[in-house]
Amino acid sequence: MTSTVAVDYRVLNTKLREQIIPVYQDQSILSLFPSEAIPTGIAASKWAAKYLEKTQRAAWTVAGFEPNTVVGSYEGFELVIDTYSQRMELSEQDMAFYSAHGFFQPFLNQIAENLAWTANKAFILGYDENDGSPHAGQYNYLVDEGTGSGTAVRPLIAASNASAGVWTTWSNIVSDITNALGGLAAKGFNPATTYCLYPEIASSGMMRTMSEYAGGSILDYINSMCAGAIRVGDDFLQTGSRSTMPTVDDFDLWFVDVTQVTIGYTRPETIRVIPPYGTVRETTVEAEIWACPLFIPRPRIEDSTTKYYKGTATVDGINIIT
After folding, report:
1. Which CATH architecture has domain 9-55+80-131+263-296?
2. What CA–CA distance (Å, rounded) separates 202 from 222?
3. Three-state secondary structure call for residue 301
4. Average pLDDT over residues 79-96
5. Of all helices (H) and strands (E), which one includes residue 92?
6. Strand partners, 197
7. Which residue of 176, 199, 262, 320 sits 20 to 30 Å from the alpha carbon of 13, by its own alpha carbon?
8. Which CATH superfamily is domain 156-261+299-318 in?
9. pLDDT at 254 over 60
């Protein structure tokens, strides 16, 4: 027996999209970055390959055309698509309430927030809610710093510095921020398109005003030096080996050049309503995103060695209290 509640499911689907997707986009870090659709049938690794180049400097000869040859080297490069999803089942009573009063926005906000939370943690830490890694062996997340000379698969962080000292001293603040942004610039990235991510625990300290900055706050200073500062949940900016929650006397800042990250989608934000059928009385609402973050690896020749970098930087171990 199916539900006797009169519901226009096309209208329901539209309303749910209008209520859930904007909240998700507002809270998801993925919304900061350029995105594009991955064509149907194209593996994520093949899509990403167009961004990868392993090159040498151009040839220079005297009055003669003798170019060197550049070829793409994508051997071993693979990416997988991540899926963030949640399903809710609505009983006949739920649907009767909806027909009379509409859905509670706070309830729908939770669905959007759950999707954004999972997407954010995957993008920043490469972990799910249980600190597992569904895509083990993949390194397309923010806090991975790479190893050795870096590779297209696992590029190096552009700059990683320990804090110069407690942030009650103006010179320490200036040193930490300029070292991070300068490190990005030195590897060819752009501080003007770079955002700074900081944990919620540091929010109050970030509002401290500094006489050396004409009474402006630490946050004002950071906003003046880059594209802006964004507060994120403490869960997402764990310190050490991604295992310790940040505190006011020990937290990290992360910087990312948003033009150097691309989000490939095989299925962007999707809301699907499945009405009752046969002996199934519940109405099912499914929300999902299928995405593949790519930190674009940029090759640089340093001391005759090709190294790969991504547009990220960090300052570790900041103490914002006395």
Report:
1. 2-Layer Sandwich (3.30)
2. 13
3. strand
4. 87
5. helix 92-101
6. 230, 254
7. 262
8. hypothetical protein PF0899 domain (3.30.2320.10)
9. yes
What are 313's two structure tokens? 């930087």
Q: What is the pLDDT of residues 38-60, one digit of tens each?
A: 888 778 877 887 776 555 567 67
Structure tokens at 143: 């806090």
Distance, in Å, from the CA atom of 188 to the CA atom of 184, rounded to the nearest integer, reads 7
Alpha helices in the chain (DSSP H): 9-27, 44-49, 92-101, 105-125, 170-186, 203-206, 218-225
Q: Which amino acid is at 161?
A: N
- Token pair in block for residue 69: 């040859």
Length in residues, the chain: 322
Burial class (CB in 10 A: 0-12, 13-18, 19+), 119: buried
pLDDT confidence tier of residue 249, bands split at 50, 70 and 90: very high
Structure tokens at 9: 């499911």
Residues in contact with 299: Cβ distance below 8 Å, sequence separation at least 6, in sequence order: 53, 54, 55, 306, 307, 308
Nearest residue to 292 via CA among 107, 141, 111: 141
CA 124 – CA 232 distance, rounded (Å) = 10
What does pTM read for this prediction?
0.87
Cβ-in-10-Å burial (0-12, 13-18, 19+) of 38 comes to buried
